[in-house]
């Protein structure tokens, strides 16, 4: 017998650490590429955008299955593989936002006074283009937790005896455990509450850091 509450809490810690690490790395990579695409434009934008479109067409689940067959799944391996396929979506949104922002009037005086590209990017464009990044980060965390839970349930996630919600769901659905409803309800409730709280916290952060909330048109 195992302590279900303890495994739920350990599973929460593992899931949150994995999701935060994955989202932090993937959002940074995607934001950096989108920032450069939108600012440099031209040939760099065309070539990199074609690469992103081709890379996004690769089947993520098949590659995870192949990697799990060739190597022993672990925290670092899953983090690397999922990072390779999680950075693309934010690059699309930030690229579009940078294209929109760099055409606004406040960029022209910055160029006219001789501001460097680094200053324009990080002091002017990026702070005014954080809306998609802040908006989609909570949903990326939710997606990372859900993906890790699904892979653990399928047996391609973290290796046992690592406590995870997907493993708890898999154990709860065994024939000898189906009559014990608390085994199936507890991970479901934990996942639902966690994803709801992450979404609400993300919405509050988005409202607090949205630059458009403080815009004044004259």
- The count of helical stretches stands at 10
Shape: elongated
Unreliable segments of 5+ consecutive residues: none
Task: Calculate the mean pLDDT score and round it.
Answer: 84
Proportion of residues in extended strands: under 5%
**Strands, count:** 0
| Rg calc | 21 Å
* Oligomeric organization of the protein chains: single chain
Structure description:
- With 218 residues, the protein is an all-alpha fold.
- The chain is built from 10 helices and no strands.
- It has helices at 4-40, 42-56, 60-70, 75-84, 88-101, 107-112, 117-125, 131-154, 165-172, 181-209.
- It is elongated.
Task: Please tag this protein with its features.
218 residues, mainly alpha, elongated
Entry summary:
The protein is an all-alpha fold and about 220 residues long.
Task: Draw up the topology in text.
Blueprint: H1 4-40, H2 42-56, H3 60-70, H4 75-84, H5 88-101, H6 107-112, H7 117-125, H8 131-154, H9 165-172, H10 181-209
Helix pairs in contact: 1-2, 1-4, 1-5, 1-8, 1-10, 8-9, 8-10, 9-10
């Amino acid at each position: 017998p195992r302590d279900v509450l303890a495994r739920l809490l350990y599973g929460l810690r593992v899931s949150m650490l994995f999701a935060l690490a994955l989202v932090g790395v993937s959002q940074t990579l995607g934001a950096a590429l989108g920032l450069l695409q939108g600012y440099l434009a031209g040939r760099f934008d065309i070539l990199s955008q074609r690469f992103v479109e081709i890379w996004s067409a690769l089947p993520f689940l098949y590659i995870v299955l192949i990697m799990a067959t060739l190597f022993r799944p672990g925290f670092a391996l899953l983090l690397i593989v999922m990072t390779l396929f999680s950075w693309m979506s934010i690059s699309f949104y930030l690229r579009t936002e940078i294209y929109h922002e760099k055409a606004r009037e406040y960029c022209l005086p910055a160029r006219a006074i001789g501001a460097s590209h680094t200053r324009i990017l990080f002091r002017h464009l990026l702070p005014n283009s954080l809306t998609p990044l802040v908006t989609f980060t909570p949903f990326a965390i939710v997606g990372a937790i859900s993906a890790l839970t699904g892979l653990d349930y399928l047996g391609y996630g973290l290796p046992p005896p690592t406590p995870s919600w997907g493993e708890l769901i898999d154990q709860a659905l065994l024939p000898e455990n189906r009559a014990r409803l608390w085994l199936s309800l507890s991970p479901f409730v934990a996942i639902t509450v966690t994803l709801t709280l992450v979404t609400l916290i993300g919405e509050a952060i988005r409202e607090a850091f949205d630059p458009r909330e403080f815009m004044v048109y004259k």
